Amino acid sequence: MVVLVTGASRGIGRALAAAAVRAGHDVAVNYLRNAALADALVGELACCPSRVIAIQADVSAADEAKRLVETTVERLGQIDCVVNNAGGGAVTPLDKLDESTFARTLQVNLVSAFLVSQAAWPHMKTNGGRLVFLSSGAARTGGGLSAAYAASKAGVEGLMHYYATALRPYRITANAIAPTLVKSDLMNLMAPQTTGLPLGRLGRVEEIWPALRMIIETEYLTGQTIHIDAGRYMT
Q1: Predicted model pTM
Q2: What distance in Å separates the CA atoms of residue 137 and residue 202, rounded to the nearest whole number?
Q3: Which of 81, 106, 216, 226 lies at a C-alpha separation of 20 to 30 Å from 92?
Q4: Is 142 inside any structural domain?
Q5: Which is nearest to 4 in space by CA: 102, 91, 71?
Q6: Residue 212's domain spans which residues?
Q7: Catalytic site includes residue 31
């Protein structure tokens, strides 16, 4: 299976890309600015039998998202799974949140997932495929970053639900993974205390892969959000 992971030079995206390669999948590692980190990941995984390539693209721009998908297909032969991981946020109180920041957050977190998915799903129509969206517990609780971040992640899940319904005839599934309180650059902005956490610690980026593996391997799973948060948010 050919897997494209956006925003994969570091954090959760990097961990998912590495795990997918080690599981035997060919992987396209997308990055925005940090070519050194992306190239280092490719070098680290060179000993694996699977193919892994790095592709620079700003997935919040339509032409760049399309180029990313087309380059993946050109170099790896097809595309079977897209992991919409690229995104970001910042701690922004309501009295400091302006329209420009709100719009940019939605562009990076939500519109980028739409642009990449729209470019990718036609390549999956013949053989089926997987669309995966990285969400957050903030989609339900509001979280601790900003109203813009919470809205963008709620939008990501709404987008996922639509794709899950619309693409069923093509055997293309759409699901979301919602890591919460996982140690990453984004979580470092909040500097959370571990006291009171369900397991007394933050999650690890490596703990997200089993959810993605299940999504990849299971055609009978679509329209779902998988929460990885040690039971902080229970459904």
Answers
A1: 0.93
A2: 14
A3: 226
A4: yes
A5: 71
A6: 2-176+208-223
A7: no
Q: Is residue 76 part of a domain?
A: yes
Q: What CATH code is carried by the domain that includes residue 137?
A: 3.40.50.720
233 is a domain residue: no
The single residue listed with the structure tokens 């990076």 is 108
Considering the candidates 149, 163, 220, 233, report the single residue annotated as catalytic: 149
First to last CA, the chain: 31
Number of domains composing the chain: 1
The answer for residues whose C-beta is within 8 angstroms of residue 181's C-beta and 6 or more apart is: 137, 187, 192, 197, 202, 203, 229, 230, 232
Question: Which residues is 177 bridged to in the sheet?
Answer: 134, 226
Q: Which amino acid is at 99?
A: E
Structure token digits, residue 94: 């309501």
Distance of CA 132 to the CA centre of its chain: 7
pLDDT per residue as tens digits for the range 87-127: 999 999 999 999 999 999 999 999 999 999 999 999 999 99
